[in-house]
């Protein structure tokens, strides 16, 4: 195996932490020892699997991911109560209870769609009998869930297309732009497939996270493409350099978001009174999946395509 | 150039000062830390509602002749159309009818000659009146063939209705029916105003009501639970005054839109009451109905009933003196005269009970006339105690995220000369976002906090790009090389920022605006980052490395 050297003499020298160095050198040697086309194969396989998962979900349930109450209509109530799940089931037997779950230190009860009168009486019941339990009530009308589904889909498509346009405007060359857009698409598809497989429900928060993923994913791709296209020097070295920066970026973001996920979801284990913050929890879990996918897509798929593009003999730039 | 004279540093310091003044952090022993930050209801406690205004804008065509034939046949048995033009329709009834009976159908007064009735018509008016009567809702003519129907009607219901009178919903160029479930901006604005008034009556000042799209209103009610919020907001509906005729039947007198002013409840001579003013049309309708249905002659047998959404909210006989006044006015002005507008008082009785009823009636009277009915699309109740916990926890999440970022950055660069400016820049970005939020007066809610944390993420990404670009090949560059590298770094950053902003923009509208806070924070945060904070970092980092 080849030796990797990025010596940084002088004052700017920054000895890398072992973990990051290891990660970079592993990736680096992998990229150097494989042909560009070989690099793109594993991410493409993962992308195809993700698309099959989403397609399969769509074929069986009519939607690529499980829809949360905002998209189907329904009610979610969380209560700070010691009442058992069974007791709560009984208490709300008159209403279309879908599940009663522990949500951190609180109990979370999900109801299906119901008439406006029924909703009002449920609200009344909760606000009187469980006033002590600091009830949080979220309701969404069934009719509007359908409209929200189209809106969410439209937002994703519009957002993605606008991003693609901006990327093309920035690079003005076909192959690099397609590479960036393809890896962003793959990030989203893989994150969505993870959502589908792990049974996380699609909420406004997860949709927001998917959109944000477009932004995050493009960050490191733009860095890579700019470095490879606009700098002189040995191609493999440029990749190594871009990777040092890019992996630092993704790792800081990933670390921050993992911490955010843990705090928003599991703080109650340390301080029992703290609730779960579902919107932050939703956003961060999707971003975690997406950023892991992004590591693979940027440094294998996108790098592979770019290397192939730059090594093609006939299209060599002057 | 000296640091303190650099343009980027000056902009940065100014922005920070503005943010500081806007946020106005303070501390006092009673309240602890204070600031001008405004929190959303998911952090402060309260209920937010998203309301859909039920209305339709459609292009409609129908045959006025068939409408008139159908409508009069319903009342008088079969009628025969004798003659019709664009401005007049003449029809024949089996037996002669009075002018009152003709005008009571609702299409104006006819000229009656024996069994023939000639009605002056106007196509739009006939169509409007017909739909309005059939759907019992207001219909506004918007010009062309377009009407606003203030009711929850589907296109198939409307098509069926129109098919009976030789009409249909018009199709556009692509052959799609011109039927949209929306209301006009004016209607939305009017609904907002009336709601606002109603909320003020409840003592809820400064309730933010935000219009979204063309038919949605978002209402944030601080410190109020969902049951009460729904009651307050959705109770107003169609306000109507009817008069009791015989036994249990009643006749329509007027709609709530005739009420021009409502006074606060007050007590006179031991009895609570609510004063309200009828405009000239309302005064006429009130007086004519009172005389016509006998309320003016025998008040006790013909009570006046106030209804809200067809539920009786108040009922009382006319005061005998008012009754005789109305008789006098009727003799003076008649059915068609210009009655002067008129103030009335609905008395509710004495004591606490009378007062409570008066207050309720006041609300009903004042805001009873919401222009359209509203449906609660979604609602969210967060109790204040839970909101406080969310606030604390979001703060913990933010701090821990920042510490983690600091740790990773330290592990990567091992230099506090890089670590400190980087983290300081990141914190300053958050500070400036909060300052901006306070300045434009938007509320910080959980989605907005998630947005801020997201901005910390992209911000650090960009600072890493700048640092690595400046440190490329490990050497501290000469000024010339440094400048060219900084501009390379910013080319990457601006490109990345542009894509993030573009990708976020659909969220401004999606979900009836539910994620607007998240979208705005991210977009504003990225802008503040690339335009103010990161240029300053790019300037400082060179000095720090020397």
Structural category of chain B = alpha+beta
Based on the coordinates given, report the CATH architecture of the largest domain in chain B.
Answer: Up-down Bundle
Number of domains of chain B: 4
**Biggest sheet statistics of chain B:** 5 strands, antiparallel
Low-confidence blocks of residues of chain A:
7-14
Kindly report the greatest chain-chain contact and the residue count on each side.
A-B, 84 and 85 residues
Write down the Rg of chain A: 24 Å
Residue-averaged pLDDT of chain A, rounded? Answer: 86
Going by CATH, the homologous superfamily of the largest domain in chain B would be Multidrug efflux transporter AcrB transmembrane domain
Count of discrete alpha- or pi-helical segments spanning 4 or more residues of chain B: 16
User: What separation lies between the terminal Cα atoms of chain A?
Assistant: 31 Å
CATH level 3 topology of the largest domain in chain B: Multidrug efflux transporter AcrB transmembrane fold
Helix percentage of chain A: 55-70%
Query: Helix proportion of residues of chain B, in percent?
Result: 40-55%
Q: How is the biggest beta sheet of chain A arranged? A: 4 strands, antiparallel
* General form of chain A: elongated
Strand order of the largest sheet of chain A: 2-3-1-4
End-to-end distance of chain B, in Å?
14 Å
Strand content of chain A: 5-15%
Sheet-strand content of chain B, in percent, reads: 15-25%
Protein name (chain B): Preprotein translocase subunit SecD
